[in-house]
Structures are given as structure tokens and as C-alpha cells.
């Protein structure tokens, strides 16, 4: 199975990687989306049509993948690196039509055996993480990060540390905490998240437990006290916008920062 589908533009890179790993003509049985944010579904439509495979997601995520609802507006008002950059990032939903299927109710997954999905909402209503109990591998997606997304320097150093999920795109902080606690209780041996480098070693479970016990949401933000109300058809009610103390000049800063990070990523890719 393919877990998530990257940014728009990945539709060429991902098939080449699949064939490089599994042989010419190889394709997954299905695409499993942990959630529907732009950096996880960019190539989903092209890949699903090219491979002629279904797209699986949690039923509470389906409204944002079938054109019924947009996500709650991103919230950059808490400040920090990712919050400022998010001003240039999309927060809309997608429509993948009849390609979308509900994840099996028994927790199973298509493709390789031994994996199961866990409902880990908070970042989005239908967010899921994947776990393989046999060797303790956890794919946490955006339930949390393995780098400090609020720190500008972290995008350069890539220092591994457990950190809260992307603040401007997380809409329910109380539920996010509960999901992190659920994942920490697994005591995984290997953890990979949507943002940051993978972590492994004897102390990983302990560090995740410590992070869970001391978890703190941002100090301010639109959704901090009152998360959006969402149901089977998507967003039903939103709290009022919060004051934005960083709005002045933030667009220029965000644009420069994104451009700088893109150049850095390109330089690293060329070196590899």
C-alpha cells in the first residue's frame, strides 16, 4: 500500500520510487490517506487513476476528500515558523470522487499483512495513524511531529524531537492530546511522522511517553478554547476569528521563508 501521496508534483517521483523498489510495473493495491491536507494528498488523484486503485480514508475524513466540505481555515495567529509559512498554504478540501473508500471497520488495511489503522483525531477529524505490532513500527502521520515546527532553525538542523502537530492546521487541541496519549501507550520502537525524520532506539518509547505527559498546546489561537464542530458532512460551525498580532509584514516573511526552504531542499536533493 501507499501511505499518503505527498505534495502536488509527486505524481512522477512516487511511481519511479515504487518501481525502483519493487520492480517494473509494480503498483500498490491501494492508497491509504492518513488525512486530506494538501501536503499528504497532492498526487493522490493522478496516482489512483494511473494505477487504477482505490483511495482509503476514515469516514470522518471523507467529506474533505469528496468535495462536500473544506477544512477549517488555517490559524496562523499563534505565531511561530510554520504558522507564518502557513499563510501561503492552502486549507481547502479535495474531491477524489468514487475513488474514495472507507477504511475497514475492523482496523485492517489493504496490502501487506500485520498493519492496522488507529483513529487519531485532533489534527483533523478523521486523521489516522498506522501501526505494526510485530516490530513496533508507528506511522504517526500528523498526530505529532518529530521536529519542532515552530522553530525556524529546526528546518535547517532537522533535529529529532517529539513536538505538537502543525499548529495552524490543528483544529482540536484537546482531542489531539488524547490521540498522542493513545499512541504513546503503544510504546513503539520506531516512529515516523509526516514532519521530521524517523526516530528509533531504546529510548524512543520513553521519550514519546515524556512528550505525551508534558504535552502543551499553543498559548493562543482561534481553536484553542473552542474547536470547530464537524460531522459526517464536514465542518458545521466555526469559532470566530482570533486577533492576529503577526499579520503585518507576515506575508513577506512567509514568502521569503518558503523560498529559502525550497532552495535548501533543492540543494540537498542535488547533493544526494
Can you give a write-up of this model?
By secondary structure, the protein is α/β, with parallel strands linked by helices. The chain has one domain: Ribonuclease Z/Hydroxyacylglutathione hydrolase-like (Metallo-beta-lactamase, Chain A). Helices cover 28% and strands 14% of the residues. It has eight helices and eleven strands. It has a five-stranded mixed sheet, with no helix packed on it. It has a four-stranded parallel sheet with strand order 1-2-3-4, with helices on one face. It has a two-stranded antiparallel sheet with strand order 10-11. Helix 6 packs antiparallel against helix 7. The longest helix is centred in the last third of the chain and has 22 residues. The model has no long low-confidence stretch (mean pLDDT 92).
Question: How would you briefly describe this protein structure?
Answer:
The chain has helices at 13-22, 38-41, 44-51, 81-85, 154-157, 173-184, 204-213, 250-271, and strands spanning 2-3, 31-32, 55-57, 100-102, 115-119, 128-132, 137-141, 190-193, 199-200, 229-231, 234-237. It is of the alpha/beta class and 272 residues long.
How many distinct domains? 1
Show unreliable segments.
none
Helix content: 25-40%
- Give the biggest sheet: 5 strands, mixed
The best one-word shape is: globular
Given helix and strand content, the structural type is alpha/beta
> Biggest sheet: strands side by side, in what order?
5-6-7-8-9
CATH class category: Alpha Beta
Distance between the termini: 26 Å
CATH structural fold name: Metallo-beta-lactamase, Chain A
Mean pLDDT: 92
Amino acid at each position: 500500500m501507499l501511505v499518503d501521496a505527498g505534495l502536488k508534483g509527486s505524481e512522477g517521483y512516487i511511481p519511479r520510487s515504487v518501481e525502483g523498489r519493487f520492480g517494473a510495473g509494480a503498483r500498490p493495491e491501494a492508497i491509504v490517506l492518513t488525512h486530506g491536507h494538501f501536503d499528504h494528498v497532492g498526487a493522490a488523484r493522478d496516482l489512483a487513476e494511473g494505477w487504477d486503485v482505490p483511495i482509503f480514508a476514515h469516514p470522518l475524513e471523507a467529506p474533505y476528500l469528496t468535495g462536500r466540505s473544506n477544512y477549517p481555515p488555517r490559524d496562523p495567529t499563534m505565531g511561530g515558523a510554520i504558522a507564518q509559512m502557513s499563510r501561503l498554504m492552502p486549507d481547502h478540501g479535495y474531491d477524489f470522487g468514487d475513488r474514495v473508500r472507507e477504511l475497514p471497520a475492523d482496523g485492517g488495511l489493504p496490502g501487506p499483512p500485520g498493519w492496522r489503522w488507529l483513529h487519531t483525531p485532533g489534527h483533523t477529524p478523521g486523521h489516522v495513524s498506522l501501526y505494526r505490532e510485530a516490530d513496533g513500527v508507528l506511522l504517526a502521520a500528523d498526530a505529532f511531529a518529530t521536529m519542532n515546527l515552530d522553530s525556524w532553525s529546526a528546518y535547517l538542523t532537522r533535529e529529532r524531537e517529539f513536538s505538537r502537530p502543525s499548529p495552524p492546521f490543528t483544529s482540536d487541541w484537546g482531542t489531539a492530546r488524547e490521540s498522542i496519549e493513545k499512541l504513546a501507550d503503544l510504546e513503539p520502537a520506531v516512529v515516523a511522522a509526516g514532519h521530521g525524520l524517523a526516530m528509533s532506539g531504546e529510548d524512543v518509547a520513553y521519550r514519546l511517553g515524556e512528550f505525551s505527559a508534558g504535552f502543551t498546546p499553543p498559548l493562543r489561537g482561534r481553536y484553542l478554547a473552542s474547536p470547530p464542530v464537524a460531522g459526517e458532512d464536514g465542518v458545521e460551525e466555526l469559532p470566530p476569528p482570533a486577533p492576529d498580532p503577526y499579520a503585518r509584514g507576515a506575508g513577506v516573511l512567509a514568502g521569503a521563508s518558503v523560498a529559502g526552504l525550497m532552495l535548501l531542499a533543492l540543494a540537498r536533493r542535488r547533493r544526494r
